[in-house]
Amino acid sequence: MLVFVSGIFGCICSDVKDKWNIADLELSVSDKDFNNPIAGLIRGDSINLEIRFVPEFVDGNSFNSNPFINSLNATSCDDDGKKGMKDGISNFNVTSDSLFNSFQAQESLNSIIRVSGVTPIDDWLSDSDEWIFLRNETALLTITEKPTSTFVGNFIVTIEFDSGNVVEVKSEEIKWE
Length: 177
Prior knowledge:
By secondary structure, the protein is mainly beta.
């Protein structure tokens, strides 16, 4: 009986926040072999943009007043962010601040980018509201088109949300040969 009673009050999971939003972004650049730029210089046929999502957890679970259900859930509290994103992504863009092949500065480079090297960005984003947060949520974007001449500039990732919020991050200046 003591075990049952302690289970009722032991874990209510009231502090678990089941949804998450992207509060900020961190961006790093590497070559296709994951080598960081040396003095801003990268060489190769493609480069990687690794985005780390800085989360804000929202929507805490509410207390269930039925003690029998609480005792059943006492050992199964979910981690934060396991029910997807609260604020869906309405627009996702990768641009550069200078000319990149046929792309003007500030023009979307999404058509030449693949997520994890294979998935088009639009396919990846189609279920973004269902993304669960895993301890260190990152996305690996690969720019698959090498510049036709030396590129010097920054890459910019901009995410717009259904709520109207916008987060943006800019890479270090890169010289890509």
